[in-house]
């Protein structure tokens, strides 16, 4: 565990921060881990941070600290500007929207799992039509929620210098568009399975 954790001193303005960094998933700490810790300690967002070690600017966030020559007890310097209270307020709104996306995504995941169960025959045929109708309704509700989130995000006007907010807004839009495509795919799966059941019922009725 010792090789997985190290403590460095980072000077930011007139303040020196003692930062203990732990690597993710058993790996040794990377620059990204240090950057994330500095967000918590200083309030300076990662995109606005400029880390300097021995006169060199550190840019490759995936690099391990040891590959940059940074060891336990080393001293670094950080330059960067904190977000304004106004930008922080917008950022908080976006983080709340992100939580709504996660909650709706979990509901969609549940529907997808239940549909797989139906396809595998975990329910009597006569009950499947009703169950598919309920799943279809739940997908439509999720789709509507995602559309509302997109409208909410789209209505936010962010100044050019709110880089942190603009990046998060762009990421949310991309994520939601991906989930909307998933909604369409699940709806198509429900429709397809419904057709199969109805055609089988028609064949049984004819015999």
Write up what this structure looks like.
Keywords: Chaperone. 58% of the residues lie in helices and 14% in strands. It is an alpha+beta fold and 207 residues long. α2 (85-119) packs parallel to α4 (163-206). The radius of gyration is 25 Å and the shape is elongated. The mean pLDDT is 88.
Please state the structural category: alpha+beta
Report the major sheet.
5 strands, mixed
Termini Cα gap: 70 Å
In helices, the fraction of residues equals 55-70%
With strands numbered from the N-terminus, the spatial order across the biggest sheet is: 2-1-5-3-4
The helix tally amounts to 4
Strand content: 5-15%
| Computed Rg | 25 Å
> What's the helix-strand series?
EEHEEEHHH
* Unreliable stretches: none
Number of strands: 5
Mean pLDDT: 88
Tell the overall outline.
elongated
Q: What is the fold's blueprint, element by element?
A:
Layout: E1 5-12, E2 15-22, H1 31-42, E3 50-53, E4 56-58, E5 75-79, H2 85-119, H3 125-154, H4 163-206
Helix pairs in contact: 2-3, 2-4, 3-4
What attributes does this structure have?
14% strand; 58% helix; five-stranded mixed β-sheet; BAG-1; alpha+beta; single chain; 207 residues; elongated
